[in-house]
Amino acid sequence: MPLLELKNVSVGYGRNRVLQNVDLTLERGEIVTLLGANGAGKSTLAKSISGLLRPEAGTILLDGAPIEALPPAERLRRGIAHVPEGRQIFAGMTVAENLELGAYASQEADHAERLEFVWTLFPILRERMKDIAGNFSGGQQQMLAIARGLMSKPKILLLDEPSLGVAPLLVGEIFRLIVRLRAQGITILLAEQNARQALSIADRGYVFENGKITLAGPSVDLLNSPDIAERYLGMGSATEVSGSASAALAGRLRDVMFPAASEAGQA
């Protein structure tokens, strides 16, 4: 039985259908990559799996159980963590607060263990727990976003364009990290425009065009296809948030997630 299975899944925004009749499987311990140009449906697929979008039709199975009607928080508790495109860390909050938000659905008994795990992968985070996340470089913010996803102790990690907006020298480091995560028993679904890098570490791949899967197979076969590198390379644009908006959002999140600390600060 696949760890994750999508059967005939269709997803849209209003009247605009973005994914059409998608069938996809993810086996335990695999790295599977999603390839395609901007707007092909890769991010929409990731959102439909994590619960940020509800399918209009079809079934999503996790360990054989349907989850398409479950809210995102419950899917997170069941083992699906989503690291979205553009990182989307909480830039006005500290590293520690970002990691706390990643762990909100997990058991508190595991918290220290999870911190040790992410500190082992990202030693710089141990040293900078009190630093404001928005002061990090793009590559450091991407590592924080991945670390935040790992705090929930996921079975499946959905990585949406992890190399986007990252300095070229750090891109290879991020892909090596993905391989390390698989070695730790985490199954990876990787949406990535950097076709050659993604296929070089993945077991299998799916190619999306206009919301449909047009090609699928072992990564070696796709990598040797003469069309892949030529047709599916490119860069997107990261989501930016203004400094004032980031600070306001950080304040509201602290009030909700860490009320004791907020009250102490006001005293």
Write structural notes for this entry.
By secondary structure, the protein is an alpha/beta fold. It contains twelve helices and ten strands. A hairpin with a 2-residue loop joins strand 9 and strand 10 (212-218). Helix 3 (95-102) packs parallel to helix 6 and helix 11 crosses helix 12. The radius of gyration is 18 Å and the shape is globular. The model is unreliable at 233-242 (pLDDT under 50).
Summary tags:
single chain; 267 residues; alpha/beta; Rossmann fold; six-stranded mixed β-sheet
Give the biggest beta sheet: 6 strands, mixed
Estimated helix fraction: 40-55%
- Strand percentage lies at 15-25%
In total, how many beta strands? 10
Strand order of the largest sheet: 6-7-8-3-9-10
- Looking at CATH, the homologous superfamily is P-loop containing nucleotide triphosphate hydrolases
Radius of gyration: 18 Å
Distance between the termini: 55 Å
What is the C-level CATH assignment?
Alpha Beta
CATH architecture: 3-Layer(aba) Sandwich
Number of helices: 12
The geometry reads as: globular
Q: If you average the pLDDT, what whole number results?
A: 84
What count of domains describes the coordinates? 1
Briefly note the structural class of the backbone. Answer: alpha/beta
Task: Report the order of strands and helices.
Answer: EEEHEEHEHHHHEHEHEEHHHH
CATH topology: Rossmann fold
- Uncertain segments are 233-242
